[in-house]
Amino acid sequence: MRSTPMAIRNLWNRRTFLGSASVLAGMALHARRVLGFTKVSTAPTGIPEKLTGFGSTGNVYEELGVTTVINGQGTMTYLGGSLPRPEVEAVMALGAQHFVPIVELEQAAGKRIVELLKLPADYDAIVTCGAAAGMQSGLAGILTGNNPKFIEQLPDLTGMKSEVIIQKSHRNGFDHQLRATGVKLVEVETREDVKRSINGKTAMMHFSNFANAAGQIKVDDWVTLARENQIPAFNDAAADTPPVSHLWDYANMGYDLIAFSGGKAIRGPQCAGLLIGKKEFIANALLNNSPHEDTLGRGMKVGKEEIVGMVKALECYLNEDHSALEKEWWRRLDSISAEITRVPGVATSFNVPDVANHVPHMRIFWDPRKLSLLPHEAASALRNGKPSIVLSSSESGLGMNSFMLKPGEEKIIVTQLVQLFKAHAV
Ligand SMILES: *Cc1c(COP(=O)(O)O)cnc(C)c1O
């Protein structure tokens, strides 16, 4: 915010829930001031003076007929990830004002990301359209090098390495992005399995950071094993900020490539992510990604707006008061807990996952003799309520976190929960 023009900064300070519109309108105002225009309905920049969606409510989704939800579940892609920072929206609007060579922009963004994160000298970065895209293009680059014939040829791996080693417990839906390159995943459990599995066809050793506790080989041992055998190591750390230090920890640990989501806790553009890694691997990942045509990654286009928005989001995230933020997340959960546990039979407990979504979580459960309501019934009643609230449910109760709530939404959750519980009191 420090280097922001005054006009925009004031608009941000006055930002409300409908604030995206005010930020963009602010951009238009700023652009007109800079260009010396005062009384035009549309600035030469193309940003309309008065922003409207498909009506005048400010909620473009409801205007299209889709009910928006209060998100107590966290950074879920199926709900739209996270809400980008106003600074990010403003920078994206500025980014939309010019044409620019995308490859040069990626290289410049990478240079800035390396500086911001103070990464080792042999590291570079690019902005991808998400962590999943980073996994695919990162691996593609390892497989093809800078060989144009190989780049065109993927996912036909003739002449290239063709295997990726992964711990069995680290398999998840996102390894589809690895398989899309044509490789075969070789599952292992022990160090001995790894040693036995490495051969001339081994291209990479993949680690899924959130599964650290589940696998026998931990994050630091995995990269050591990879280095001993001169195999590139990848860490999918998509949802692994906070803590902010994870953004450089895995590079310092020696991982060759690391992917982060931009549209989760960093609150960058929804369709953005970071691929950080050794210079050569990053250059080859970019060769396999949009804007380069006839590549596997051409379908994972990153826009100029996402690239600058991602860099801005990172800058803001690094400058944020992380302990104040965490305190606020706890305050929200505590305030919900204090009210709902007054309903006879209702109790709460708290935890913070070690890795991935390392933020305060609350479990809400109740005595079935006092409340005749199953957890999944509670979740769907909240989901179908007005306003609609999304919490997770399990056999034992409801689950929620508070880091994606907008200010004040914790009060709505309290009202709805108390009402629901009271209606089902035995
Ligand atoms: C969210 C997530 C991804 C995908 O990230 P995108 O930025 O949405 O592409 C990959 N791996 C893990 C573990 C994730 O949590």
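^ pyridoxal-5'-phosphate complex. The pocket of pyridoxal-5'-phosphate is lined by residues 77, 130-133, 174, 208, 210, 236, 238-239, 261, 263, 273 (CB under 6 Å). Residues 92 and 305 are 5 Å apart (CA to CA).
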